[in-house]
């Protein structure tokens, strides 16, 4: 782990050994590694994010339903430019601007489109977070963290939010459908052709699948753009916080696309 890089990346501390697990910090980790920018990680307890941001004078970028500001990570601090950026998408804009000689995260004229895609993916994956039944938070703080989340959701304990087997099964189906919709973007078919992702069902549906066009593992072929890191970051979160057999189920969908994609992101996943 480098300790004297100019750029500091603040990530949420996991259980030891420290690793990225939360989706938005994953977006930044993948982006920094892809650009090859030297950096050091500062691991922050989720309970200390507010005090850290307040100390550094970085405003909250999320608001809870009751209007309370919600302080989050990732955040980066660049000792060269003296800038501190505390939102994963703003970090991308900053990195492409401040490090113009490194590979671009955003292709020309795609910032707005990618921002909309980011918001959409956050919504799609957040809706299925109930399938993540493990947690990567440090056991030393996990009880306090769960109590904080329960308070946020207005329940006395997160156990009150546990899904029944039937609800869980429905959520799996909904998640498979949602990732099927996303597969249409990878296969460049537009928005109507369900046959491009249905790998199960009647024989008729299966034979319809021939003739599709596949772009490859990433949205636009072999080279990833930031939009791929958005999807990859969320997948990595599900991989970390799902029980292995549930993650394997996700990996079996859509011709195994998601497991292959996560494996392809390994080269930009190093914890520095
Ligand atoms: N819009 C922000 C959202 C960041 C965010 O929601 N981060 C989560 C982790 S993925 C967080 O720090 N949560 C702290 C908490 O919920 O207390 C960004 O893209 O950076």
Structural account:
This protein is of the alpha+beta class. The chain has one domain (7-268): Glutaredoxin (3-Layer(aba) Sandwich), CATH 3.40.30.10. 44% of the residues lie in helices and 8% in strands. The protein has helices at 23-35, 49-56, 88-98, 111-126, 142-153, 165-186, 203-208, 226-241, 244-252, 257-264, and strands spanning 7-12, 39-44, 62-63, 69-70, 75-78, 83-85. The protein has a 4-stranded mixed sheet, with helices on both faces. The longest helix has 22 residues, at 165-186. The N and C termini lie close together (5 Å). The mean pLDDT is 91.
Could you name the CATH class? Alpha Beta
Structural class by helix and strand composition: alpha+beta
State the helicity in percent bands: 40-55%
Can you count the beta strands?
A: 6
Corresponding CATH superfamily: Glutaredoxin
Any idea what the radius of gyration is?
Answer: 19 Å
Q: State the strand order across the main sheet.
A: 2-1-5-6
Instruction: Please state the overall shape, judged from the principal axes of the Cα atoms.
Output: globular
- In round numbers, the mean pLDDT is 91
* SSE arrangement, N to C: EHEHEEEEHHHHHHHH
Oligomer: single chain
How many distinct domains?
1
**CATH-level-2 architecture:** 3-Layer(aba) Sandwich
As for the CATH topology, it is Glutaredoxin
């Amino acid at each position: 782990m480098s300790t004297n890089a100019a750029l500091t990346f603040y990530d949420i501390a996991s259980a030891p050994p420290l690793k990225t697990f939360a989706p938005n910090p994953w977006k930044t980790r993948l982006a920094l590694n892809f650009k090859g920018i030297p950096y050091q990680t500062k691991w922050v307890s989720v309970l200390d994010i507010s005090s850290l941001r307040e100390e550094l004078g970085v405003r909250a970028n999320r608001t809870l339903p009751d209007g309370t500001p919600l302080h989050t990570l990732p955040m980066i601090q660049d000792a060269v430019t003296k800038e501190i950026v505390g939102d994963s998408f703003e970090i991308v804009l900053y990195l492409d601007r401040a490090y113009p000689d490194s590979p671009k995260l955003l292709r020309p004229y795609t910032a707005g489109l990618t921002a909309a895609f980011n918001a959409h993916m956050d919504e799609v994956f957040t809706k299925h977070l109930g399938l993540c039944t493990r947690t990567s938070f440090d056991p030393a703080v996990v009880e306090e963290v769960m109590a904080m989340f329960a308070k946020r959701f207005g329940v006395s304990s997160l156990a009150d939010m546990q899904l029944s087997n039937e609800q869980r099964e429905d959520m799996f189906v909904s998640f498979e459908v949602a990732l099927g919709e996303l597969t249409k973007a990878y296969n460049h078919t537009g928005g109507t052709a369900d046959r491009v992702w249905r790998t199960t069902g009647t024989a008729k549906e299966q034979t319809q699948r021939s003739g599709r066009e596949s772009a490859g593992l990433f949205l636009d072929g072999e080279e990833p753009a930031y939009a791929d890191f958005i999807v990859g970051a969320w997948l990595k979160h599900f991989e970390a916080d799902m029980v292995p057999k549930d993650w394997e189920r996700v990996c079996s969908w859509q011709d195994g696309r998601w497991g292959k994609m996560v494996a392809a992101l390994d080269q930009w996943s190093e914890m520095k």
